[in-house]
Write a structure and sequence with these properties.
By secondary structure, this protein is mostly helical. Helix content is about 35%, strand content about 5%.
Length: about 230
């Protein structure tokens, strides 16, 4: 091809490009609304066919970018269900505390007070309790204290301890008035008192009788200032 022909074709191509540019400038198309950087709406086409093609390719690109982790996926709205009643754990706990259907519920029972019965006559032996002493036992069972001491190998005034088992004489009687204080009466409990000690205070009364008159057990603890009925 000659240089002259090449020059003519170049001039013709330049004229076509120049004419096309002038037509595009004269049409004054609307300015596209600026969008955020890297937005898929940047450079949106205006023709209907071009829009459809652009939307399809953009959607494909977006799905591919999400799959590759290039852009975050749109968060899915979470729905919360609020129970109007207890949570399952609370309901399970509440159900566990209820007794099974058809089973009787437990009833709180209080053991009755066992009131002792006084021993009639003279026992063969007697075990000393706290607050008691041989002369007290001789008054209570109406025996001679000298016989009681001799039978048990004890001396007058000898200190004995609770738990000592005394043999009780089968004959004789107490040589003096057995009652140390008048009764029936009321007695106000002092410090360190117990029913056995109070019985010795009155002399001729059995501790079981005091316990029965006050609906107490023999080993019931007493409170200072408590008033007892003495039969």
């Amino acid at each position: 091809m000659s240089k002259k022909v090449s020059l003519i074709m170049a001039l013709a191509l330049a004229a076509v490009v120049s004419l096309t540019a002038c037509e595009l400038s004269a049409s004054n198309p609307p300015q596209a609304t600026p969008t955020a950087e890297n937005s898929f709406l940047a450079g949106q086409p205006t023709g209907i066919s071009l829009v459809e093609a652009w939307g399809t390719s953009t959607a494909i690109y977006e799905q591919t970018a999400i799959a590759q982790g290039l852009i975050p996926a749109s968060p899915t709205p979470e729905t919360s269900e609020t129970s109007p009643t207890d949570t399952p754990q609370e309901a399970e706990t509440s159900a566990a505390t209820l007794p099974p259907a058809g089973e009787p519920t437990a009833t709180l029972t209080v053991a009755p007070v066992v009131v002792p019965t006084a021993t009639l006559g003279r026992p063969a032996t007697y075990t000393l309790q706290a607050g008691e002493f041989p002369y007290c036992i001789a008054r209570r069972f109406n025996v001679d204290p000298a016989d009681l001491l001799a039978l048990n190998g004890l001396n007058s005034g000898q200190v004995v301890q609770p738990g000592l088992v005394l043999r009780i004489p089968t004959t004789g009687s107490f040589p003096d008035d057995r009652a140390l204080h008048q009764h029936p009466a009321q007695y106000t409990v002092a410090v360190d008192d117990n029913i056995y000690k109070i019985a010795c205070y009155f002399g001729d009364i059995d501790p079981t009788a005091i316990a029965a008159a006050n609906d107490l057990a023999l080993d019931s603890p007493l409170t200072t200032g408590q008033v007892l009925n003495i039969p």
